[in-house]
Write a structure and sequence with these properties.
Length: 261
C-alpha cells in the first residue's frame, strides 16, 4: 500500500485540514500519515482559536513518519508562520517524490489564514514542490493573477512549479461550469465539472489537494491526478451530508475509487 504524508493543520469539526486529508487518502486506497502544524478550535461557522505547534515538534512528527515509512507523496496544507515554513521547506528539499502544496493563506471568503510575514516566506517552498493549488484569492496575493486578466499572468507563468488555480465559474453553452486552470509555464490546461450551487464547501481545497497527492502516489500522471481530484470533489459535493449550522463538509466517501481512471 502506498503511503502519503500530510503536513497541515487540524480542524476540530472534521471537515478540513488533517481530518479531511486522511479521509480523502482512504477514499483512494492509500495509507495516510500526518504531521500537525496548527491545532484549531472550530466548527462550520468559523474558527474560535488557533494554536501553532513548535517547529521543533513539527520536525519530530515528520521525522518519525519518514524514518518508518516509504513515503510515496506529500501534501502540505496550513503552515501559518515563517518558522514552520522554514522547517517544512528543509524537509521537502530532500525529497524525490511528488509534493502538492495547498498554500492555505486566504479562505474562500477572503479571510487571512496565514501570518502576514509568512506570505513571502511561502515562495521558498515553490522550487521544491510538484504542484501549487491556490484559490483565486491566494493566486492574486502570491502572483498578482486575476481570473480572465491575461496581463496579470506574467508572474504566475514564471513559477518554478506547476500551478492549478481552483474553481473559477464560467458559463459555457448556457451551463455554469467549475473550472480549474493548470499552468505549466506558458501552457494552460482546463479541467471542468458542472458548477453546483451549494453551501457545503468546507474543506474542498484541502480535499482536492489531498486527492491529487493520493493519485500522484499511485503513479498517475499530473493531468490525470488533477482531473480525477476535480471529479472526486464534484461527487463529494453532490452528496454532501448537509450537517452543521454553517458551510457544511463534503462527503469524502462519495468520491474516490469510482472516479479514478
Amino acid at each position: 500500500m502506498r503511503v502519503v504524508l500530510t503536513i497541515a493543520g487540524s480542524d476540530s469539526s472534521g471537515g478540513a485540514g488533517i481530518q479531511a486529508d486522511l479521509k480523502t487518502f482512504e477514499a483512494f486506497g492509500v495509507f495516510g500519515t500526518s504531521a500537525i502544524t496548527v491545532v484549531t478550535a472550530q466548527n462550520t461557522t468559523g474558527v474560535r482559536e488557533l494554536v501553532a505547534l513548535s517547529p521543533s515538534f513539527i520536525k519530530q512528527q515528520i521525522e518519525a513518519v519518514a524514518e518508518d515509512f516509504d513515503i510515496a507523496a506529500v501534501k502540505i496544507g496550513m503552515l501559518y508562520s515563517p518558522a514552520i515554513i522554514e522547517t517544512v521547506s528543509r524537509f521537502v528539499a530532500t525529497l524525490k517524490v511528488p509534493v502538492v502544496l495547498d498554500p492555505v493563506g486566504i479562505s474562500k471568503a477572503g479571510s487571512p489564514l496565514l501570518q502576514e510575514e509568512a506570505f513571502e516566506a511561502l515562495s521558498q517552498l515553490f522550487e521544491h514542490v510538484t504542484l501549487l493549488t491556490p484559490n483565486r484569492f491566494e493566486a492574486e496575493r502570491l502572483f498578482g493573477y486575476r481570473f480572465g486578466d491575461t496581463n496579470s499572468l506574467q508572474r504566475l507563468t514564471k513559477a518554478p512549479c506547476a500551478v492549478v488555480v481552483k474553481n473559477q465559474v464560467l458559463e459555457l453553452d448556457g451551463h455554469a461550469r467549475s473550472i480549474d486552470q493548470l499552468f505549466e509555464g506558458h501552457t494552460r490546461t482546463l479541467f471542468s465539472t458542472p458548477h453546483l450551487q451549494t453551501a457545503n464547501l468546507h474543506g474542498t481545497g484541502c480535499s482536492n489537494s489531498s486527492a491529487i497527492a493520493a493519485n500522484l502516489a499511485l503513479g498517475r500522471p499530473l493531468h490525470v491526478a488533477i482531473d480525477t481530484a476535480k471529479r472526486y470533489i464534484y461527487h463529494a459535493l453532490l452528496r454532501a451530508p448537509a450537517i452543521g449550522h454553517g458551510p457544511g463538509p463534503i462527503n469524502h466517501k462519495a468520491g474516490g475509487r469510482h472516479v479514478a481512471p
